[in-house]
Amino acid sequence: MAQSVLLTGASGRVGQAILEGLADEREYEWRLLDRDPPTGDRDYPGEFVVADITDEEAVREAMEGIDAVLHLAGDPRKTAPWESVLPNNIDGTQTVYEAAVDAGVDKVAFASSNHAVGAYETDERTPDMYREDDEFQLDGTELPRPGNLYGVSKATGEILGRYYHDEYGLSVVCVRIGNLTKDHPPIDYERGQAMWLSHRDCAHLFDRCIRAEYDYEVVYGISDNDRKYYSIERAREVLGYEPRDNSADHG
Amino acid sequence: MAQSVLLTGASGRVGQAILEGLADEREYEWRLLDRDPPTGDRDYPGEFVVADITDEEAVREAMEGIDAVLHLAGDPRKTAPWESVLPNNIDGTQTVYEAAVDAGVDKVAFASSNHAVGAYETDERTPDMYREDDEFQLDGTELPRPGNLYGVSKATGEILGRYYHDEYGLSVVCVRIGNLTKDHPPIDYERGQAMWLSHRDCAHLFDRCIRAEYDYEVVYGISDNDRKYYSIERAREVLGYEPRDNSADHG
């Protein structure tokens, strides 16, 4: 049976990478939501809802009949001010979880971010932690240490997910996305090498978020880079994530 | 030299317990802030500012010349709806941290709550975890698991504190307060016995938050009860907390 998938923030960078990779997947019926209407030069694989993520009524309507949600909508700027992340990222995410529970949705994959743990990159640890022979690694069990207010908002979205899972049984996976770029990061950009998430690995990872069974999880979303200070073991284990790219392969 | 201490939520239950215990402390110059004006039948040991914690300008003004902040203001109801905790507890707390940093404040003690970790009290663990011979214990290093949206807001206040510490060097201690009651809890109320924080231990604990030196800490605020599933070791070690009460002493 086809799965109905709601993708919020469909026009954003992550949303576009997911759609590129999964638009031909015939098992999914897509509903796409974004604040901005689609531009004319592109086909979308499903119904497109133009709505702000803070518009509770529109979000509730978009949630009807949905099995799984990929929640990406929000202010994506790492420099986003509190005045923006409070409504768009924190309040918007609470609206999504609440509507998902009320609509009987099974799963929500929440686009968290490496910025939720950015402050682990201290002066003492860097640049060593960006290098292959360094042993420092985060695996998703550590407490959040946001490096900016955007990261605070993402860590809050994770806690909201924990609550909606514990209280209502919603399956929630929080994906701390690294640096999503179409091309390989420059070989001399050490942090970028360690953080890279390729477009096809991104699409595959969120595909696994739709298909896998889980309770509440926090995983890292990066490719299988030689250099990495985020573990992808939990994503492999729980979601069946099998990345195919590695920033070290060419640059 | 006298320390200037700003106490937000001064008229609330925790604020009153603190003032009862510390009002005669001559080393402190108090500035009290609450949304509600003081009632006529009580003396306050300092200047009283009537302002809402979401009133950024008023909070900034109240922060001038302050050394340490005890931030208690917010909606204290465990059943508080999102529409209240978002502005009052989350946005209000960000306002306090931001104003504290800008005013050059040294320390902020944030009144967090047992509700930030309430969902650890699962059906499988309770009531065993409320009993003396059970080994389950939380010590502040665990990830938040809020049992309600009030708890989500308190966990978010902790993450905000982590950020303002990491980014600006502000000393922050988050106190996950148990059940503060004047009298001993009923002897047959097992959870209450384990959770109890006496008025004098509460005042002493926040006194230590003003005096001690720390970076970023999450501690539990309960008395030295025979039964406890929250560790007070970190509070003892870092803050010099020496509780004098125990819920088991009489009931």
Automatic annotation (TrEMBL), chains A, B:
Active-site annotation: 150
Reactions this protein catalyses: D-glucose 6-phosphate + NAD(+) = 6-phospho-D-glucono-1,5-lactone + NADH + H(+)
Keywords: Carbohydrate metabolism, Glucose metabolism, NAD, Oxidoreductase
EC number(s) stated in the UniProt entry for this protein: 1.1.1.388
Gene3D superfamilies in the record: NAD(P)-binding Rossmann-like Domain
Pathway field: Carbohydrate degradation; pentose phosphate pathway
A single GO BP: pentose-phosphate shunt, oxidative branch
Binding site for NAD(+): 88, 113, 150, 154
Keyword Oxidoreductase: yes
GO MF entry, a single one: NAD+ binding
The keyword Repeat belongs to this UniProt entry's keyword annotation: no
Sequence ranges assigned to domain NAD-dependent epimerase/dehydratase in this UniProt record: 5-180
UniProt cross-references to PANTHER family, sorted A to Z: 4-EPIMERASE, PUTATIVE (AFU_ORTHOLOGUE AFUA_7G00360)-RELATED, NUCLEOSIDE-DIPHOSPHATE-SUGAR EPIMERASE
UniProt record similarity statement: Belongs to the NAD(P)-dependent epimerase/dehydratase family.
Function field: Catalyzes the NAD-dependent oxidation of glucose 6-phosphate to 6-phosphogluconolactone.
Oligomer status and interactors: Homodimer.
HAMAP family according to UniProt: Glc6PDH_archaea
Protein name per Swiss-Prot or TrEMBL: NAD-dependent glucose-6-phosphate dehydrogenase
High-level lineage: Archaea, Methanobacteriati, Methanobacteriota, Stenosarchaea group, Halobacteria
